[in-house]
Design a protein that fits this description.
This protein has 350 residues and is α/β, with parallel strands linked by helices. The protein is built from twelve helices and eleven strands. A six-stranded mixed beta sheet has the order 7-6-8-5-9-11. Strands 3-10-4 form a three-stranded antiparallel beta sheet. It has a two-stranded parallel ribbon with strand order 1-2. 43% of the residues are buried.
């Protein structure tokens, strides 16, 4: 009798475990369909939004429709500076973040906004992908229940755009109210400009009303926000690279079946080549748009660019490193990782 009772209890435990394992495998392995919320403060026409849709279409196609997406643009689910908060609290599941909007939330991830640029889009993207593999970079995002997917790398070198005053030299910049971001603001201040911090959705009106006289802009936001309608001068003074990175809510990703996780990461990796190949066409379209809008492009003197880098770039890079090291963060390691990765990748593979 005791033996039979023991067998019954043992079989009961086995059945319970089998049911639990089946439920777990059903939850993670037999997902029929789910809809993920994508949110951005940028408009639907913005180039970042266009390529996010390409990414989502590929994920939906390769998962046989088991993953669908619902899109929210123009800050419908929150402001740009609140993206990490909203990821953490589950307002949406994935989207871009721009760490320079609120540096305290992810201080090491502000490094793309130092006034130093990787000009080639493929190299720029791959260097940031390597950066994202550092454990400390993963940990910084994980605090917000976020994980890195890919960086946006198209048309993302920042140049100086102005409304009325053409910029032919460093001297022309003194006293101008320039919308700038992150450490780029410090670099401009070092050469006599008056940097102004401002969310992108407010920039068009500020330019048109004379509240600011110009800004540090990459081609993607110039096109996405139609800033070429008010900024009539583009100086090829290279100011930095910046650009958002795409993140996903980590706890949501972890609950997805393994095959879907694999698709999401594969498509995220493919985004590097997709964007780099699109870069030439995108910049050509942008140049045509600027020409029709009456934008004058000014070639910034090489000597003035060199002087700007001596006065405004490397001192600010060193300041960024020192600031992070003072806070117990590996600022120099992160900087060296990004710089060395930029030297390793030379051209897009075909």
């Amino acid at each position: 009798m005791k033996k039979q009772g023991f067998l019954r209890r043992t079989m009961g435990v086995v059945v319970i475990l089998a049911i639990a394992l089946f439920a777990a495998s059903s939850a993670k392995g037999e997902l029929k369909s789910t809809t993920l919320k994508f949110a951005s403060w940028m408009p639907e026409r913005h180039e970042t939004s266009v390529h996010a849709r390409w990414w989502s279409e590929q994920v939906t196609k390769r998962t046989d429709g088991r993953i669908q997406f619902q899109f929210f643009y123009g800050g419908a689910l929150g402001k740009g500076k609140d993206q990490l908060d909203n990821i953490k609290y589950g307002t949406f599941d994935l989207g871009p973040i721009l760490p320079a909007y609120d540096p305290a939330k992810s201080p090491l991830w502000t490094i793309p906004y130092i006034p130093w640029a990787i000009l080639d889009p493929w190299v720029r993207i791959m260097a940031q992908r390597e950066l994202a593999e550092l454990p400390v970079m993963k940990e910084e995002l994980a605090k917000w229940d976020a994980m890195f997917l890919f960086p946006f790398g198209m048309g993302d070198v920042y140049y100086l755009w102005t409304v009325k005053k053409p910029i032919y030299s460093l001297g022309d910049i003194k006293g101008l109210k320039i919308r700038s971001l992150g450490e780029m603001a410090q670099s401009l201040a070092a050469i006599g400009a008056s940097p102004v911090s401002m969310p992108m959705p407010d920039v068009y009106d500020a330019l048109s009303k004379g509240i600011i006289e110009g800004g540090c802009f990459a081609t993607a936001p110039i096109m996405g926000y139609k800033l070429y309608e008010v900024c009539k001068y583009k100086s090829t003074m290279t100011l930095g690279m910046g650009g958002p990175i795409w993140v996903m809510k980590k706890s949501v990703f972890n609950k997805l079946p393994d095959d879907i996780q694999k698709v999401i990461m594969e498509v995220s990796l493919e985004m590097a080549k997709h964007m780099a190949e699109r870069e030439v066409e995108f910049l050509k379209e942008a140049d045509n748009t600027f020409e029709k809008a009456g934008v004058t492009v000014i070639e910034f003197p090489e000597g003035d660019q060199t002087k700007y880098e001596e006065v405004g770039v490397m001192p600010v890079v060193e300041k960024w490193i020192k600031d992070k090291e003072t806070k117990g963060l590996p600022g120099r390691k992160v900087w060296e990782n990004l710089r060395n990765a930029s030297l390793k990748h030379k051209k897009i593979p075909h």
